Amino acid sequence: MLTSFVGGATDPAATALSERELAALVHGEIAPVLQIQSNPAFSQVTIYSRALPQYNLGHTERLATAEQAAAEIPGLFLAGNYWGGPAIGTCVEQALEVADLAGRRMERAAKAVRS
Description:
The protein is mainly alpha-helical. It has helices at about 20-35, 60-70, 80-85, 90-115. The chain has 2 domains: about 1-50, no CATH class; about 60-115.
């Protein structure tokens, strides 16, 4: 089973294709790469015209600036879809990592206060 994303800012015309055309397009692109020799047993197409954000040019530099500024503010942690990617799974993984980091720093601060 495969999931594919088509269109976006780099190919907005894809939203004008029918579900059947989109499924055929994806199959036609994936089949040679994965050496698939038969048609899909089934396909499901869901169209989201504005589903995933597209980062603008300079995004990486803005993140670096934000990271430098945040480093100067103790206790400030940054997380979000702008940071590691818009996928929900990526956001959850990043949130757990940031929460773990914040917890470790709080534990170290508490130990320092007690000593």
